[in-house]
Every structure is written in C-alpha cells, then in structure tokens.
Design brief:
Elements (H helix, E strand, L loop, with lengths): L25 H10 L1 E7 L8 E7 L2 E9 L14 H15 L7 E6 L2 E7 L9 H5 L4 H13 L9 E3 L5 E3 L26 H14 L2 H6 L5 H17 L18
Antiparallel strand pairs: 1-2, 2-3, 3-5, 4-5, 6-7
Length: 259
Amino acid sequence: MSLSAAGPDPGSSLPLDPLDCGGLDAAQALELLRAGELEITGRLVDASNATLLCEIGAEGVSARCVYKPVRGERALWDFPDGTLAARELAAYEVSAAMDPGVVPPTVLRAGPFGDGMVQLWIDVDTTVDLVALTRADDPRLRRVALFDAVINNADRKGGHLLPAPSGRVYGIDHGVTFHTDDKLRTVLWTWRGERLTGAETATLRQLGESLDASLGERLEPLLTTAELAALRARVDRLLDRGRFPLPSGDWPAIPWPPF
C-alpha cells in the first residue's frame, strides 16, 4: 500500500480537512482504513451497539478510527433487513456523491471481531456549544439537514454532529437510515418547509443521476431493493416539492434523547 505524503490543494473543495483527523486527506484515509492493521484501544461505552476505538496503521502512517463489528449490533424490530454497518457505508456513499464531507471516510472490512464498519476518527472542537449550534440557522447544518432528508435519518441527535477544528461539521452514526417508511427524526428542523436553493436542487438532480448509474451499483450490496427504490423516490419527491420536508405526524419529529 502506498500512502502519499502529498497534501491537498488548499483551493479545492475538500471532502475531508486534514486538520480534523491528524493530517490525512480523504484518499489517504480511505486507503489506510481499507488496508491498515487495527488495534483496539478502547470502547465507547455510551453507544447502544458495540463501538470500539482503534489505532490503525500501515507503512508508518497511522490514525484513529471507530470499528463497529456486525456481531456487536443489537437487532432493531423496525429494521429487520441488512445491518447497521452496511447502512453506515451506504450513508457515506450518498454523502460522497451528494455533498462530500458530511460523513467521515468509511469502509466495510474484516476486523478483530469479524466484519464491520470502520470510520475515520474526527477530532472535535470542544469549545462549540452543541445545543446552540443545532438551533442556529447555520449553512453547515443546512447541508446536513438535506442529507438527512435524503437518507431518511431516524436518529439525528445533537451528539451525532461533530464540530471540528477546521470549522467544518461532520455527521456520524447513520445505522438507522434508508427505511422505506418516513422515519425522519432530527434536531435539525430549522429549515422545515423552506424552499431549496438552486444549488441544492442541482445537487439532488445530480444525485438522482448517480443513483441510476455508479452510485446505485455501489449501494446494491448494502441496501434492499425496496430501500433503494425508496431512496430514489425521496430524491424525486424533494425535487418535485422543492422544499425541505416537514415533520411527520405519524412519527416523533425529534429523537430521544436529543443529545
């Protein structure tokens, strides 16, 4: 495995800011996550499923990451098909196609406890007030809100947002997504019912085209046929309505606990 030390073009729109993850760019991070050696260093005890903190290294390059083995998942009655790990990777694939950088680099691979999701660790700016952030009319969160509407995120808690040293805001914990029913639950309702911008509309159109091509092919092993069809229908519905969704009266609008 070759891990180049070359840095990114500072003038480009980056899917990952090296300041937030120990100096790696997105391509380096993905290469390391796929082929590096995992060493478990701890466990995130607040997580409802097995979530292990690891060091990963190869050829003198190292980083921190999160490893969620499939065998450590708790079954969910309303998500009987697939795995949380597969939906985490599907969310990353949609993020990469739609708005690079919402979801940190993520892969599926073998680990010490079997196959699972491995995701790059993002450093957090602990000076940011998460409660105030989630209530702000902040364009960084608006892009997350649109992403969540596309993937039908049923669990966007405030604690699943990572304000990073670069000033970017990342989103994590996307295992409860892509359901065929409307299950959007989020703390990010600031833009409910607002019109989509021209740029957001263009993003959704491009995403729809990608779903009919290479993105759809990458998602096929990760989601059911019905989930893929529902994803495409949500994109079409957002384009037809031209607005952010409103909370559903059939489902709690905010996850509990919200943080």
